[in-house]
Design goal:
four-stranded mixed sheet, Macrophage Migration Inhibitory Factor, 30% helix, globular, 23% strand, alpha/beta
Length: 124
Amino acid sequence: MPLVRIDSTDAPLDLLERLGQAVHDALVEAIGIPTDDHFQVLSSGASRVIADPGYVGVSRDEHAVIVQVVLRSGRTVEQKKAFYAAVAAKASAAGVEPRNVTIVLIENELEDWSFGEGIAQYLR
């Protein structure tokens, strides 16, 4: 179960929703998550995103967004690279310049999830 968080300083909510769908579609396509495994937090406005405009040779502008994906460990480097590429392609189609999308994957284990009721459902 990936949990996706997308933060932006100024993106309208409809743009973040399109980017969120693009990220979800990329997770389904490149990582193989189920289509109904869809949990996201979209944040814009009150937050402030600071992204160096030239870090590692990528030219970002004031419309930078940060995408954090918390997911179970175990994906291959190839799957992760395919995911990054898929997000870039789908972000562009959603109206977000790929150069402005920073992605970080945060991996954890099955015991690190509860979907409610105070139960670790994955440990059943």
